[in-house]
Design brief:
Structural class: mainly alpha
Strand order of the largest sheet: 1-2
Largest sheet: 2 strands, antiparallel
Shape: globular
Number of strands: 2
Length: about 160
């Protein structure tokens, strides 16, 4: 892949998933409002991706510890809503439900990697413990498993 296209990889890789998912929802008779949310989120996040890639100096100035704290707070927001049968995975804003772990954990791991590179192991361990407790209380076995495996790989690198 050429250097210019490489930065658009998130958009290029997500497009087929959005197209297939939207088509499947349409053919299954799912409400238009549901699959339109996917399309709108894809467009908004693609624009954010382009914006941040053009202004990469913004990302370099952000403190990874602050971003990790923001991720932890976002995960805690799932407990504001009573949840469904005791499961707290979503932050609901009007008609839109955000599966916050899937949104926040990639940002968390990018910043964990920054802490590993800066040799700030204690901050890293504290953050991992907090997120582990939150994911255990949600409960979400698939995310917790992915989180645990990723943390093991990061700490193994250390």
């Amino acid at each position: 892949m050429t250097k210019g296209l490489w930065k658009y990889t998130p958009i290029i890789t997500m497009f087929p998933a959005i197209a297939i998912g939207t088509t499947a929802m349409f053919l299954s008779g799912i409400s238009v409002s549901i699959y339109i949310q996917n399309i709108i989120c894809f467009i908004v996040l693609s624009l954010c991706n382009i914006f941040f890639l053009k202004r990469n100096n913004i990302l370099n100035r952000l403190n990874p510890i602050i971003l990790i704290i923001v991720c932890i707070v976002a995960l805690l927001f799932t407990f504001i809503d009573p949840g469904i049968e005791g499961v707290h995975r979503w932050i609901v804003i009007g008609p839109i439900g955000l599966y916050i772990s899937v949104i926040v954990l990639p940002v968390f791991f990018i910043n964990v990697w920054c802490l590993l590179e800066k040799e700030k192991t204690w901050y890293l361990i504290i953050a991992i413990i907090f997120v582990s407790i939150i994911l255990t209380l949600q409960p979400d076995a698939s995310i917790m498993t992915a989180f645990t495996v990723t943390c093991i790989l990061f700490l193994w690198k250390k």
